[in-house]
Every structure is written in C-alpha cells, then in structure tokens.
Specification:
The complex is a heterodimer of chains A (360) and B (182). By secondary structure, chain A is of the alpha+beta class. Helix content of chain A is 49%, strand content 15%. Chain B has 3 domains: 1-46, no CATH class; 49-67 and 75-125, no CATH class; 129-181. The longest helix of chain B is centred in the last third of the chain and has 25 residues, at 129-153. The chains are: A alpha+beta (360), B mainly alpha (182). Chain B: This is UVR domain-containing protein.
Chain lengths: 360, 182
C-alpha cells in the first residue's frame, strides 16, 4: 500500500488540525462510564452476562442510530488480530485494557471515529467523544447525545445519592472524565511545568503523559483531566477544566513569545536540527522521534518552517507507534526493525509534504 | 520502550524506586505490572498499582478498620446480597462487583467517596430520564407520607384518609412505571 493511501485510511478526524486553538490543544475528549442495572460489573460478571451486555448494545445499534453520528460499526475484540487492536489503542479509540484483558470486549465506532463506545472494559459501557482542538463543550454535547440514545433503551445503574454507579468509586457520580491533550514545549523549555503541575493538581485536575496513567510526557504532550466526578454537574466539571486550559494556553503563548524574544536563534537552531534529524536519520527511537516532532511542530507554529502543515505531526506521532509501523509493514517487527521503519516512514512523509508544496 | 518483564508489550507504566540511596527503574506493561502488583503484595514490598494505591487509601479509613476488627472478632463481614462481594474484598480489588454493592456498603462508603471526591458525597449531575421520573414520584410519596404522619397526630382523619389514597395512587403509578420500563 502506498504511504498516502495508508495515511488516508489511518488518520481519524481528531488528528486534523482545524480545531480551535490547535496550535496548542491537539484534542478534547469526554468519557462517560455507565453500567447496566441488571448485570454484575465486569470485575465479577460471568461470560454469559458479558455476552448479554454486548448483545444488548449491539441490538440497540442495529435497530437505531444516534441522529448526529449515523450507523455505528461494531468491532468485537475476539474477532480482530492483536495488531489491529494495537492500532485502535494508538489511535486512542480503545484502551489497552479493552484490547488485552476484556472478556467479550467490543467497541462501537462512528464513521469519523469521533465517537467510540467501549463495551465491557472496566465498566459495561464507556462512551468516548474525541474532537480535534479545544472543543470540550462540543464533545460533551456529543457524549450526551450518545448517552441519551442508549438510555432510551437500557436501564443504567443509578443511585440518587451516588449518581451513575461505576466499578471504581473514583468514577462514580457523573462518570465523566474530561481531558485535553496539549502541546506545551514553551512551558517545558522555560522550565515552568514544574511550577504549573502542582498548581493544576491543587485545582482537582490531573496532568499525565500522552498515554495516560503513569506514562511519560512524550514530545512535550500533556493530558490534563478532571479528577473529581461526584458532587459537580457535568457542565461545571467541563467549565472548570476549560478555564484552566485557557489559562495554560495563554501561558504557553507568552512562553513562546518570550523564547522568540530572548533566544530566537537558539530556538531556530534547535528546530532546524530536529528537522534535519527527522528528514535524514536512518534509525530513530520513539522518544527521539517524539522530541524532534515536538520541535518541528513548534517551529511551524512560530513561523520558522513554512512548507509543512502541522497536521502531519499529529499524524506522525500516531503513525510511528509500534502498532501502526507493523500494520504498515504488513507484519510483526522487532524493536530495532521498527526504529529503521520509523525513520523511513518519517522521511517519506516529510518528502511527500514538500513535494506537494512545490507541485501545488 | 518495551516492557522489562515480557519483552513483548510496550511499557506503559514507569516506576522509580529509591531504597538505601539506590535508584532502580522499572518499565512495565499493564499486564506485567498487575502481576507484579500481586507479587509485591505477597512479598510485603513496595506496591505500585493504582488499585493497590486505592486499597491503601481505603485502609486508612477508620470506618473500615473498625469493620475489619469487628469482622475478625465476630466474623460479621458486610457482604453484597447480589454478587456476594465482601467489603474487605472490595478494598483489596478496588472495584465493586455490581450496582447493589453501593447499597450494601453504603455506610462505609460515604467517607471514602468523600475523600476521593474532595468532600463531595452527593451526585449533582445528570439523571437518567427514565429513572428521573421515578425519582420525582418517590420524592412526592415521601413528602405525602410525612404529611400523613402530621395529619394523624393532629387527628385530622378525614384529610389523612385523602392523603393515604393519594399515596396509594402514586405508588400504583410507580410500580406500573417500573413494570412498563422492563
């Protein structure tokens, strides 16, 4: 398959760069955790119950579809190869937990992949809406639509006091996790993250690396989300997160301005060195690729580099993950083989971009 | 980075441990981390997984420590009538077995939930439409029952009879609604 065709198939809409504030916010995500009233939670349910849960949701999706998102496609975890599951994880459409541990796990996906409904993960149902750029309220609205559509048909486990009942008490209440993925090289370079992270934590929000819990901030990408799910309304939770994210956006912008004023040449040098590495290396590890891609993205945002669209960086962050590399290669690769493939894919992709420019 | 344990899956959890001034790093995938977590528990070594952290938090709960003592003393362990999960089991796993667990462990749970959610223990968000109408009905019934008590103690028996009929009517509606919802 040609790289172009592969990318067209691989890229979901959240990776496009046309969202608001997309120079800093890569994507906005809303997740609702829900359980069906009648069956044990996934921690304890029997295979039979797990199957019934999948069947119930499948029936709903076969007979009707949510107005805005149309027919949803059902993928059962037991019916696709491990590599394909990995690709879904790398696209952030399913969790590693669903891919690897779930009993009768499945996912319902909308055509544009903005909606994904995981079935039998930690909870029976996890509704996820993923939008490009800073669009938390829009994502919440979409998640509510999906939630209402399901609720017309199923009985949710709900309690007056505790709200939506979830497997883990950390999700109880609204079952809502709202999160944004932010690219913050300015704050990292000016060493302000160490100061900002504790402040964010004090506001009841969590900062994590790109692949969630426990992962490092690869390529200066941070995920910021709410911790509290009980006692506040969905709108309040989202508004609180929005106001903090807005402040971080403006701090990141001033950090970039300050960098441009005080060390423009050093920054330009750094950006072009990273560009050079990406355009020429023959072996590149995930970490180095992520770091260089972050520099390149910053270089585009700051106007040092003009002939590359920044959406390819969102793409490359995803496409150079092990699952995608192996998918593109058409089979399993050892880690060192991946590093070679990764370098080749990045070179090819950058060449494609500059060719488009000169041709157009 | 690849998981140090299985050398297959990618390491998604990264731990740094300092003991006796020595720094050790551990890079694990979620599955191996979970297995390790079990191991750590058995060895009494440092514990890393989220569930174990949660368990640590729950263990701090005085309500639970009392519960535990009581359990050992009298072998009276709170148990969910639906899925048979016991409270100590929940503390160990950090996850509930079913929706009824919330009812079964309501008392022990409230302080824990409060701690997890910055002092909040009352849902203040969306209510499922179908359950919502029931909720409204139940609240009205509760209110009428209170009125009924007051009327009886005030010896206003005629009004009390009216209220009683009203309650019966609403209760009929409630149970009809629940059957209709099945």
């Amino acid at each position: 398959m040609s790289l172009e065709k592969f990318i067209n198939q691989a890229v979901s809409s959240w990776m496009s760069d046309d969202g608001p504030d997309s120079d800093i916010v890569l994507s906005s995500r809303i997740r609702f955790a829900r359980n069906l009233d009648e069956y044990n939670f996934p921690t304890l349910f029997t295979n039979g119950e797990a199957e019934v849960v999948v069947g119930t949701i499948m029936e709903r999706a076969n007979n009707t579809s949510p107005a805005t998102f149309g027919q949803l496609e059902m993928i059962k975890m037991g019916e696709i190869p491990p590599l394909q599951k990995r690709v879904l994880v790398e696209k952030h459409l399913i969790s590693p937990n669903l891919a690897e541990n779930s009993v009768h796990g499945a996912v319902l996906l909308s055509d544009n992949e903005e909606v994904s409904i995981m079935i039998n993960e930690e909870d029976h149902i996890r509704i996820q809406c993923l939008f490009p750029g800073f669009q938390l309220s829009e994502a919440l609205q979409a998640a509510n639509e999906i939630d209402d559509w399901l609720e017309e048909y199923v009985n949710y486990a709900f309690d007056e006091k505790f709200g939506y009942l979830t497997s883990c008490p950390t999700n109880v209440g609204t079952g809502l996790r709202a999160s944004v993925m932010m690219h913050l090289p300015g704050l990292v370079l000016t060493q302000q993250m160490n100061r900002i992270v504790p402040a964010i934590n004090q506001l009841g929000l969590v900062v994590r690396g790109i692949y969630g819990e426990g992962s490092e901030a690869l390529g200066n990408i941070f995920q910021i989300s709410n911790q509290i799910t009980l006692g506040k309304s969905e709108e309040d939770i989202v508004d609180d997160l929005k106001s903090v994210v807005s402040q971080i956006i403006s701090q990141e912008r001033s950090a970039r301005e300050a960098l441009a004023k005080t060390s423009n040449i050093q920054l330009e040098d750094r950006v072009f060195r990273s560009y050079g590495t990406l355009a020429n290396s023959r072996i590149i590890e995930t970490k180095e690729a992520a770091r260089c891609l972050s520099d390149l993205r910053l270089g585009i945002d700051m106007g040092f580099i003009k002939n590359i669209s920044k959406s390819i960086l969102n793409e490359l962050m995803i496409l150079t993950q092990p699952g995608f590399l192996q998918q593109y290669a058409g089979g399993p690769l050892r880690p060192n083989e991946r590093d070679i493939r990764r370098a080749a894919l990045i070179r090819e992709r950058l060449k494609m971009e500059t060719k488009d420019e000169s041709g157009g | 980075m690849i998981c140090q344990e299985c050398n297959q899956r990618p390491a998604t959890l990264h731990f740094t441990n300092y003991s006796n001034g020595e720094k050790t790093e551990l890079h694990l995938c979620e599955i191996c981390a979970q297995e390790k977590g079990e191991l750590f528990m058995m060895n009494n070594s440092p514990v890393f997984s989220i569930n174990n952290l949660l368990a640590g938090l729950l263990n701090m709960e005085p309500a639970f420590t009392e519960q535990k003592k009581e359990a050992f003393d009298a072998e009276q362990v709170a148990k969910c009538p639906q899925c048979s999960m016991t409270f100590p089991q929940f503390v160990k796993v950090g996850r509930f077995g079913c929706a009824t667990c919330y009812d079964a462990f309501r008392e022990q749970l409230t302080p824990i939930v409060r701690r997890l959610h910055s002092g909040n223990s009352m849902h203040n968000g969306k209510i499922p439409k179908r359950i919502g109408s029931d909720l409204h009905l139940r609240k009205t019934i509760d209110q009428l029952k209170q009125n009924l008590k007051n009327l009886i103690s005030a010896e206003e028996f005629e009004k009390a009879a009216e209220t009683r009929d009203q309650i019966r009517e609403l209760e009929r509606k409630l149970s009809a609604g629940q059957e209709g919802g099945e």
